[in-house]
Amino acid sequence: MMKSIKLLAGILGVVIAVYILLISCYEAAWNVLTMSGHFNGFAGIVIALLLLAGSIVRIGMRSAEDDSGSIISLVLFAIAAAVAFASTWIYRYMQTWAIICLVMGILSVLMIMWKNSRREG
After folding, report:
1. How many domains does the chain have?
2. What pLDDT, in 10s, does the model give residues 16-55?
3. Is residue 47 within 8 Å of residue 82, measured between CB atoms?
4. Which domain holds residue 65?
5. CA distances (Å), origin 35, targets 19, 20, 27, 31
6. pTM
7. Which residues, in sequence order, are CB contacts of 115 under 8 Å at separation 6+?
């Protein structure tokens, strides 16, 4: 059951990360071509790559006996959420991305807690 949840959450994270990456690459290219001085495209690329890396770790480590995969993905999602929340005061739409990263991080914490409760019980 837990492996299936990790797999589904990982696949969802990869799909969302690819979507954010496509949008951010377009924005970064537009910012460079227009010389606007904005950095939202580059911040979005960083957020998308961190979200992608965390999701891939979640998928790859779903069968691990320890919590290392969940901890690594939690750290990556937390960094992505921090970057997104830091960019929110300039670019309001990044608040949605920050919340997505935060939810993925919370899901990692819940997986760690669930696995630890099953060991004790």
Report:
1. 1
2. 999 999 999 998 898 888 888 777 788 899 999 999 999 9
3. no
4. 2-120
5. 24, 22, 12, 6
6. 0.89
7. 2, 67, 70
